[in-house]
């Protein structure tokens, strides 16, 4: 590792005791990563305990505050000039996220976003993705396909100029809109990633319903702020 960390990997995690170890071991293989920070977002299981031997720092939040709040805490603690955001359930696929870092370190983009391949099984009807893409396009004039992807490399300067980002499921949309509206560049990078998928069952529809509501709320707030 370099004396001064350049890339800080930040992993928000909530009840991920079954997957967090594989994810962190995979991240340890990414040569671009200088430090690994796990933010345990009020987990009710052993996520934090399992993460501690494999991360440089584990931040325990007393209660679940949402993904946005967890990422904010991670950024505040990170020493890097580039932040690599990785979902806790990627497992062995986390090692592929190193491909997101290069363009940001080289100044080719201020933010890179991993574009996932098509889902292996049918989930919902694509309403959440369509809403996110439509909202970003209306607010910025730019079409971003992987608007909801949580796997991103982001320059510190972008995060510092972004201001407050939305919490919960709306954070990726909020980050994308604020980055583009402030003149930062975004590059999408296709990667053969996969993580836990929700199906067409009651639990899956409830999850996507919460996503839809959160993203719609984020877009309304952004519209009011930026209009």
TrEMBL record:
The protein's matches in InterPro entries, at most eight in alphabetical order, are given as: Glyco_trans_2-like, Glycosyltransferase_2, Nucleotide-diphossugar_trans
Q: Mind telling me what this protein is named?
A: Glucosyl-3-phosphoglycerate synthase
**What are the protein's UniProt keywords?**
Glycosyltransferase, Magnesium, Transferase
Q: Which residues form a coiled coil?
A: none
- EC no.? 2.4.1.266
Organism, scientific name:
Kroppenstedtia guangzhouensis
Cofactor(s) recorded for this entry are: Mg(2+)
> Could you tell me which CDD domains the record lists for this protein?
DPM_DPG-synthase_like
Q: Which reaction does it catalyse?
A: (2R)-3-phosphoglycerate + UDP-alpha-D-glucose = (2R)-2-O-(alpha-D-glucopyranosyl)-3-phospho-glycerate + UDP + H(+); an NDP-alpha-D-glucose + (2R)-3-phosphoglycerate = (2R)-2-O-(alpha-D-glucopyranosyl)-3-phospho-glycerate + a ribonucleoside 5'-diphosphate + H(+)
UniProt cross-references to Gene3D superfamilies, sorted A to Z: Spore Coat Polysaccharide Biosynthesis Protein SpsA, Chain A
Endoplasmic reticulum as UniProt keyword:
no
Q: Name one GO molecular function term.
A: transferase activity
> Which residue range or ranges hold the Glycosyltransferase 2-like domain?
8-126
Q: Could you say which protein family the record assigns here?
A: Belongs to the glycosyltransferase 2 family.
Question: Do you know which Pfam families this protein is assigned to?
Answer: Glycos_transf_2
Q: What class of enzyme is it?
A: transferase
- State if Ligase is listed as a keyword: no
